[in-house]
Structures are given as structure tokens and as C-alpha cells.
Design brief:
The chain has 14 helices and two strands; from the N terminus they run H-H-H-E-H-H-H-H-H-H-E-H-H-H-H-H. With 312 residues, it is an all-alpha fold. The termini are far apart. Heme C binds next to helix 6, helix 7 and helix 8.
């Protein structure tokens, strides 16, 4: 008997065995579900995935690079009349170009486009002076002056406070000449430059050497004295009949340091009281044992006499 269409099994397994290719037709629904599941998993974790794709901020070890103060030759910064200097002239711009070449093109590029080789790795990139918007401090005279005075250190723009103010105004006019319509300062803003930086007074910049070099110079200067002290301390071995010497030997952890410090401060240890005061302030820093603090009056005098004689 022929089966009527409404009783035909929904899924005819005999059919399926005859043409197994059909199986794939049924399996696509599982793939769809699997894809949907994976999609939901992805959407669920989108937050974490997004976070991971942002380069993590590398916290630098601030103790790793110790910034030293720069070498600086002494100079006198001549006084400047702000009212005159704030007016642009062809001479000022020409001077500005010279100073710009010497100090700025490495980052800001020959034409102020912010494309200098040293600026390529900086973020933010050095300012393109032709662009009007997006300045951190701004393109007014007073604003650029502040940029040059203080720098924008966090963004890699250095301070150029050692440049004479007249050269800074020259630079300012050059930079502003790159813009078709640079923003104007109000009269108060120009006057405030004078009040803030006392430009009409001029100033003296003292010479300065990096601390690192200063330490080297100091060590070299004292090397001869140190050597003689070391030789002297080295020659004092074995028992000594002098009770002051004996006391010093017993108490000094670092005899050379102690004698060097006392020599440097010999004005303070002329009297025994002064000596006691100096030693009591920090015996360990002076290379002595803390037990020095329990000496009696007579022992202090002996120790003082010895140190004064040796630290001459
Ligand atoms: C070591 C690279 C470097 C050097 C050298 C340098 N700059 Fe910059 N400068 C920068 C960077 C980076 C910025 C961008 C700072 C920012 O976006 O806040 C910048 C920004 C500026 C700005 C715009 C500040 C603002 O308000 O956005 C001025 C003006 C400027 N520099 C002037 C100078 C002058 C003039 C010199 C030379 C005397 C100079 N710079 C030398 C890196 C440098």
C-alpha cells in the first residue's frame, strides 16, 4: 500500500542511508549553533579583548635614569623691553631663523613642520607650527614665551630658559610667521610678561656643572690628602703607648673617613665641646662606633687631642 503523503516520516532514515550526503544538510544547524556560541563567547569577552589590544603603559623605573643638571656656561641675559620686542620685524625673524636652526630643527624640522629626525619617536610629535589648532600652551607671544621658559616637559618639549630673552622673542616671531593669522596677545598679556619674568631687569645665569662631574672633581681634589691619610692610618698598626691613639683605634670603624671629615670641619672642632657636638650629631656617619657617646670627659679630651693633631 502506498503511503499517503501526510504519514510520510519526517525523517526517512532509509533514505538517508541511501544518500548520506543529505546528512550534511541536517548538520548545518549544529555549525550554526556552534558559531553562535563562539560569537557570544567573543562578545562576552569583548571588554577584556579590547583592553589587551591597548599597549600597556610601561612604568619606567624612575631610579634607573637619574637626570643630572646640565652643563651650563655662565651668561648675562641683557634686559629686554617687552613693548619693543613683542613687535615683529624682519631682523627679528632673521635672527629667529638662526637660533631655530641651532636649537630646534632636530625636532621641529627645517620648516617648522614638526618633522625633524629627533622628533619622529616622540609622542605627541613636535608641534607643526603651520597648524593653527591643538597647541598645548598656545601660539600667542606670551604663550610661546612660557613654553620656551618652562618647556612642556611631560611631552618632550625642553625648556630653553638659558636662551637670552631677545633670542626667545626672535624665535617667537619666526614661529608665528609660519601661521597665516597667528592669535594676538592683549596688551595686558604683553605687560604681564614683564611682570612675570622681569625682562627689563636682565639676569645673570650662573655657571653650573652636572653633579656627577662635580663629584669626580671633588674626589680628584682630595685624592692626595686621602692617600696621605690612608698611608698614615696604615702605618699605625700594633699597640701604641699613646692613650689617644689607642682610643681612636678602638672607636674608629673608618679612620680615613673620620679624619677626612674632621679635617674638612676643623673650624668646628677647635674646642673639645665643638668636637663632642660634631661627633654626637652622627658618630656613625663620621666613621666612629656609637659607643663613642659613652666616653667620659677625660677620654673625650684625649680623643679630641689625637684627632686635632692628625686632622690638621
Ligand atoms: C627634543 C625635541 C624638541 C626640541 C629640540 C624642541 N622642541 Fe618644541 N616641541 C617638542 C614637542 C614634542 C612638542 C609638542 C609638545 C606638546 O604637544 O605639548 C613641542 C612643542 C613646541 C611648541 C608648541 C607648544 C604648544 O603650545 O603646543 C613650541 C612653540 C615649541 N615647541 C618651540 C620650540 C623651539 C623654539 C625650539 C628650539 C629653541 C624647540 N621647540 C625645540 C619637541 C622639541
Amino acid at each position: 500500500m502506498e503511503q499517503s503523503p501526510q504519514f510520510k516520516e519526517e525523517m526517512d532514515f532509509r533514505d538517508l542511508l541511501r544518500a548520506p550526503g543529505k546528512l550534511f544538510g541536517y548538520s548545518y544547524i549544529y555549525f550554526l549553533l556552534l558559531l553562535l556560541g563562539l560569537g557570544m563567547l567573543y562578545a562576552w569577552n569583548l571588554n577584556a579583548i579590547g583592553k589587551n589590544s591597548i599597549v600597556p603603559l610601561v612604568l619606567s623605573d624612575s631610579s634607573a635614569f637619574v637626570k643630572d643638571i646640565p652643563l651650563q656656561s655662565p651668561s648675562v641675559l641683557p634686559p629686554v623691553d617687552v613693548q619693543v620686542a613683542s613687535k615683529s620685524t624682519p631682523e627679528l625673524i632673521a635672527r629667529g631663523r638662526e637660533v631655530f636652526k641651532a636649537n630646534c630643527i632636530s625636532c621641529h624640522g627645517e620648516d617648522g613642520l614638526g618633522d625633524g629626525p629627533a622628533g619622529l619617536t616622540l609622542n605627541p610629535r613636535p608641534r607643526n607650527f603651520h597648524q593653527a589648532g591643538g597647541w598645548t600652551n598656545g601660539a600667542k607671544i606670551s604663550e610661546i614665551y612660557r613654553t620656551l621658559q618652562e618647556g612642556i616637559v611631560k611631552n618632550g618639549m625642553a625648556s630653553f630658559s638659558y636662551l637670552p630673552p631677545s633670542d626667545r622673542f626672535a624665535l617667537i616671531h619666526l614661529i608665528r610667521s609660519f601661521q597665516p593669522a597667528p592669535p594676538a596677545d592683549t596688551e595686558q598679556e604683553i605687560a604681564l610678561l614683564e611682570t612675570t619674568y622681569q625682562l627689563s631687569k636682565g639676569s645673570v645665569i650662573p655657571a653650573q656643572i652636572p653633579v656627577h662631574d662635580a663629584i669626580k672633581h671633588l674626589v680628584a681634589e682630595h685624592a692626595a690628602a686621602q692617600d696621605s691619610l690612608k698611608a698614615f692610618v696604615g702605618s699605625h698598626t700594633g699597640q701604641s703607648p699613646d692613650p689617644g691613639t689607642e682610643l681612636f683605634r678602638k672607636l674608629a670603624v673608618n679612620p680615613v673617613r673620620c679624619l677626612t671629615a674632621c679635617r674638612a670641619r676643623r673650624d668646628e672642632i677647635v674646642s673639645t665641646e665643638g668636637f663632642v657636638r660634631l661627633v654626637s650629631s652622627d658618630p656613625v656617619a663620621l666613621g666612629l662606633r656609637p659607643s663613642v657617646l659613652s666616653l667620659d670627659q677625660q677620654e673625650w679630651s684625649l680623643l679630641h687631642a689625637y684627632v686635632v693633631a692628625e686632622a690638621r
